[in-house]
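Narrative of activities, Objective 1.

The group set out to show that a structural description can be obtained from nothing but a protein's sequence at a throughput compatible with the screening campaign. Below is one input-output pair from the validation batch, recorded exactly as produced.
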Amino acid sequence: MEHLLRVEHVTKRFANHTALDDVSVSVPRGSVYGLLGPNGAGKTTLIRVVNRITAPDSGRIFLGDKEITTEDVRRIGYLPEERGLYKKMKVGEQAVFFARLKGLSRAEAVARLKVWFRKFGIEGWWNKKVEELSKGMAQKVQFIVTVLHEPDLLIFDEPFSGFDPVNANLLKEEILSLRDRGATVILSTHNMASVEEVCDHITLINKSKNILSGRVDDIRHRHGNNIFQLDYRGEESALRRVLEGCCEVLEGSVEASVYNSLKIHVPTDGEVRGVLAKANEAVELRSFREIIPSMNDIFIRAVQGTL
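Output recorded for this entry:
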């Protein structure tokens, strides 16, 4: 697997506070990579180190196959959590200004901006002042400015904050489209539902350390607790009798359809087949599926130290 960004053993201290403690992260090229963690964990510090806004005390950052330089920052698009537009400037004028700072000619900037403004439904705001925009509109402008120069690496810090569900979904679709067109995206967010919808890989930082990394699907399956749901037709009492002693029945319920369901915990992977066979003898078994924990569940357990 080719990695666009590699963070190797980075440590950063501020006075008596260690913001990053020997953190390593590898971001695969062409992926959406979730950077997760509670407030104060060190996520924003890591992003600032990658962007060379602040320097690490130790460790190295690689972009592609070489150590990152100040010049490489042009290859990064960064949307910080602390938004900032000049309120008295006109929207189009300001967007062109930022695009020029990223190396685009005025003609190229205007052409690209017109396309993005139409896509986001804000073409009528070109000559409005920024102070006239709603928070959501201003965030759309900042997102556009961040991606306009088509950088190799895009970093979004809480990009869905303040968006209604419709516009949050629009942003998710655009992030996935950017990935599909070859961009590599780092997404720092507390929105665990968005992580499951758009992220391919994640790193969870807690108390300045990387405590969990990997593919989202792999992590969810790896941290399952062997909890399964059986959907069946038959007597629940008969099913409970055959399962007694080989697994723990967590809850039972009657579904709206003709099938009942039972949620169980099987102690080990090796016992799953035997449990399934016993259940199939006692009732008409219609489905048997593992209940995979959500990223929100895993996040909470990891931060609490119960994972």
